[in-house]
Amino acid sequence: MTKSENRELLKIISYLDERHLQGMAARSLATLIRSTRGRNTRAELLDFARVNRLNERIEFKI
C-alpha cells in the first residue's frame, strides 16, 4: 500500500469511530478500492471492508 493509500485508510478508520459516519466510510473505502492499482492492496482493502462490515452497507459500491 502506498503512503497516500495508507493516509486515506487512516481517515476512513477515523470515520468508523463515529456512528453517523459509517456511510461516508463505506463510500470512501469503495472509492479507494476502485482507485488502487495493486491486486494485493485491493484484496487487503476488501478484507478490511468485510471485517468492519462496510461491504454490507448500501453506500459501498464498487
Protein traits:
62 residues; mainly alpha; globular
SSE inventory with pairings:
Blueprint: H1 3-16, H2 22-35, H3 39-51
Oligomer: single chain
Cα-based radius of gyration, to the nearest Å: 11 Å
What gross morphology would you assign?
Answer: globular
* CA distance, first residue to last residue: 19 Å
The average pLDDT value, as a whole number, equals: 95
Specify the number of helices.
3
**Structure class:** mainly alpha
Q: Total number of β-strand segments? A: 0
Largest sheet: none
Uncertain residue segments? none
Helical coverage, percent range:
55-70%
What sequence of helices (H) and strands (E) makes up the elements? HHH
β content, as a range? under 5%
General description of the model:
By secondary structure, this protein is an all-alpha fold. The protein contains 3 helices and no strands. It has helices spanning about 5-15, 20-35, 40-50. Helix 1 (about 5-15) packs antiparallel against helix 2 and helix 2 runs antiparallel to helix 3. The chain is globular and about 30 Å long. The mean pLDDT is about 95.
Summarize this structure briefly.
The chain is an all-alpha fold and 62 residues long. 66% of the residues lie in helices and 0% in strands. The protein has helices spanning 3-16, 22-35, 39-51.
